[in-house]
TrEMBL record, chain A:
<protein>
    <recommendedName>
        <fullName>ApeI dehydratase-like domain-containing protein</fullName>
    </recommendedName>
</protein>
<feature type="domain" description="ApeI dehydratase-like">
    <location>
        <begin position="27"/>
        <end position="106"/>
    </location>
</feature>
<dbReference type="InterPro" id="IPR054545">
    <property type="entry name" value="ApeI-like"/>
</dbReference>
<dbReference type="Pfam" id="PF22818">
    <property type="entry name" value="ApeI-like"/>
</dbReference>
<dbReference type="InterPro" id="IPR029069">
    <property type="entry name" value="HotDog_dom_sf"/>
</dbReference>
UniProtKB/TrEMBL annotation, chain B:
<dbReference type="Pfam" id="PF07977">
    <property type="entry name" value="FabA"/>
</dbReference>
<dbReference type="GO" id="GO:0016829">
    <property type="term" value="F:lyase activity"/>
</dbReference>
<keyword id="KW-0456">Lyase</keyword>
<comment type="similarity">
    <text>Belongs to the thioester dehydratase family. FabZ subfamily.</text>
</comment>
<protein>
    <submittedName>
        <fullName>Beta-hydroxyacyl-ACP dehydratase</fullName>
    </submittedName>
</protein>
<dbReference type="InterPro" id="IPR029069">
    <property type="entry name" value="HotDog_dom_sf"/>
</dbReference>
<dbReference type="InterPro" id="IPR013114">
    <property type="entry name" value="FabA_FabZ"/>
</dbReference>
């Protein structure tokens, strides 16, 4: 899928099943370079990485590797997102992902932090691609 | 919706601080006291399409779903700016949180997205909006609730502590 963010999430910890549970977790890192195209317009002379671009980094990390039992998934909804601090050029996002089966689909819960502290939390819902 | 004039593309650009490549509202059809309807035309000429491979399929051409949220939110932002009046001058518009955002079908170049945002309520300096986005009358996105606030830009300094993004 095309993306408003150029940086590619770097995998720090491969997705692994948590012992004694059906959850899977992994972690990623994304370096937010000042050359990201969105900074030109968000905002001129006052660069803030847009909240939806933080969400985009999480989406790309989530979709880079999904839990093997889930099969092919598609994004159904953003159950919730909370933005806790602004992200600036030069920040590095640390993304912790936790997948758990929910009903016929999966929930991917994410915590995003920068070197300044917590930046965002998010819950994405995915459904099997076969479900209309 | 109460009878209300819209806003030209020039007025939209004057209202929102966003600029290319992330000014994602083209024109306001109706701007009322509590509601707004605006359009965003999706085209191949948006920069996100520049990195496509030689033979993309229809799925590859889907508009990034979170940009659809951004576009809807900018629409709500035009209404928020009107409601805040001069108090918002010089301040930055920020999301606090979002819940219940559902994607119903992909959007592609050539689609004209019509956003509809409604003020659910305002609490102190925070506004809560809900709404829907449609293409040719069919919902592509529903927004359960998004909270938005205006904050002085200096609060966003990384050293200044918690702020929203």
């Amino acid at each position: 899928m095309i993306s408003p963010v150029q940086a590619v999430p770097e995998r720090l910890r491969p997705l692994a099943r948590e012992e004694g549970s059906e959850s899977w977790s992994g972690s990623y890192s994304v370096e937010i370079s000042e050359s990201e195209p969105v900074f030109a317009g968000h905002y001129p002379d006052f660069p803030i990485f847009p909240g939806v671009c933080v969400m985009e980094c999480v989406r790309r990390a989530a979709e880079a590797e999904t839990p093997p039992p889930a099969g092919k998934l598609r994004l159904d909804s953003v159950e919730s997102t909370r933005f806790l601090s602004a992200v600036h050029p030069g920040d590095r996002l640390a993304i912790e992902l936790n997948w758990s089966p929910r009903g016929e689909g999966w929930r991917c819960q994410a915590k995003v932090a920068t070197q300044h502290g917590q930046a965002a939390t998010m819950r994405l819902r995915y459904l099997p691609e076969a479900v209309a | 919706m109460t009878a209300a004039a819209g806003a030209t593309s020039a007025e939209v650009r004057a209202t929102l601080p966003h600029r290319y490549p992330i000014l994602l509202v083209d024109r306001v059809l109706e701007l009322g006291e509590q509601e707004i309807r605006a359009v965003k035309a999706v085209t191949f000429n948006e920069p996100w399409y520049a990195g496509l491979g030689p033979d993309p399929d229809q799925e590859d051409l889907a508009y990034p779903p979170f940009l659809l949220i951004e576009s809807w939110t900018q629409t709500a932002g035009v209404l928020a700016k009107r409601l805040a009046g001069s108090e918002a001058d010089g301040q930055v518009m920020l999301f606090g949180s979002m819940t219940g955002i559902e994607f119903h079908r992909p959007v592609h170049p050539g689609d004209v997205v019509e956003h509809h945002a409604r003020l659910e309520r305002a609490v102190n300096d925070t506004m809560i909006f809900e709404g829907v986005s449609r293409v040719a009358g069919e919902p592509v996105l529903t927004v359960g609730r998004i909270t938005m606030a205006f904050r002085p830009g200096e609060q966003l300094n990384p050293a200044a502590g918690p702020a929203t993004g």
